[in-house]
Amino acid sequence: MASTDRTAKIRIVCLHGFSCNSAIYRFQTARLRKRWAEHLRQHPLVAATSSASPSSTSSSRAASPGLDDPWQRSNTQYYYDSDEESSSAATTTSSSSSSVDLAASISSRSSISFGSDYPPPPSYSSGSSGGNSGGIVVYNDVEFIFLESPREVSAPEQPLAEVASLFPGPYRTWFEPSTTTTTTTTTTTRRTAETAKPDDGSRARRRDPAIERWVVEQVKRAGGVHGVLAFSDGAALTTALTLKAEAGVAACPKLWDFVVLACGVDPYPDPWLHGSGSNGGIADGEAKEVEEEAKCLARLKTPGLHIVGLRDEVYRDRSEALWGLVHPQAAAAAADRDEKGMNAASGMAAEVYRFDDGHKVPVQDTDLDAILSAWRRVVVRSGLFRDASPDEVVAASRVLAV
């Protein structure tokens, strides 16, 4: 456990879903993030324990959040709207680098283009080449770091299509469309991302190792990240990286101490990529990689909160499957016992909250209150709250009987 001397800022990475971008995700998560930040203002965290802790260079950002770091200054725009406020350090900078209105920030960022070969993140001295950070939002001295995928999609799909006029593209995805082949005893069916129904929950696509490496490098550069707030496919990417870190994969160190996965998608296996009980759709050269990744399937051990939409017609089954990565028996028992509300399986350091809506981040006060309570229990289990009492630690660690 890291020293209880709070030498690092509170940093939470935010990863958007499919056919989205950081501006849309900021809009989707605004109310939830504000609740967290208000709570953290009164209940600070200790320094993050991830292996991507800030170096002596990045530690200087504790005094002046991000603004003294050349990478942050060159590749990150700071956005604030009426519901968000900058830290005192940020407000002392010029408006051209730290405070632009939401519409202008969207327009400016939308003009950025990325190379098709997904180069590594830019050096500290470079400008807008390579990858991109979607912006840092500061609430009450808490940094929400929005990363935006280098991979573009042509247009947002439902339910995001309805906000396209408010949030211009480009729109992003963490995954690449893949042409897959599934073989049965009677027929061979070729399915492509173009022919798949857009909202059937089984869209053909596969993870991009280059993008995964890019995200790892971005988080390491940020330094001192406590947790991640991820939605839909962003939750799948988060889970993949977290499982790899837990499995000791050298290329993926521990990046964060807790995860919040909203309407998430299970990353292993993708039925359209892997086929049914076979290597259907996997090239021979990829078989070994898939076999190695299967070792990560043991269980997700990092403290986490899973948020599942009861009326999510797209991904509810896969969100439940993602929750099942924590502890299958506990997940099944919790679902049977309480279809809506908080269910804990703290033996595996995780909780699940099911809310009465679809594929979205909850915005209702009752849901946000419950999520805040569950999130605090998760962070208490991670050992990061400085003011957690022994009784609270015990209460947060009760194991669900199954």
Question: What topology does this entry show?
Answer:
Elements: E1 10-15, H1 22-42, H2 70-75, H3 88-91, H4 95-98, H5 102-110, E2 132-139, E3 142-148, E4 152-153, E5 171-172, E6 175-177, E7 180-183, E8 188-191, E9 205-207, H6 209-222, E10 227-231, H7 233-246, E11 258-262, H8 271-274, H9 287-294, E12 304-309, H10 316-324, H11 328-337, E13 341-345, E14 350-355, H12 365-381, H13 390-396
Parallel strand pairs: 1-3, 1-10, 10-11, 11-12, 12-14
Antiparallel strand pairs: 2-3, 4-5, 6-9, 7-8, 13-14
Helix pairs in contact: 12-13
List keywords for this structure.
FSH-like_dom, eight-stranded mixed beta sheet, 13 helices, LovG, single chain, Rossmann fold, about 400 residues, two-stranded antiparallel ribbon, about 15% strand, alpha/beta
Structure description:
Residues 191-207 have a biased composition (Basic and acidic residues). Residues 141-365 form the Serine hydrolase domain. It comes from Lasiodiplodia hormozganensis. Residues 47-74, 111-130, 175-207 are annotated as: Disordered. This protein has one domain (10-396): Alpha/Beta hydrolase fold, catalytic domain (Rossmann fold). The chain is α/β, with parallel strands linked by helices and 402 residues long. It is built from 13 helices and 14 strands. It is globular and about 50 Å long. Helices cover 32% and strands 16% of the residues.
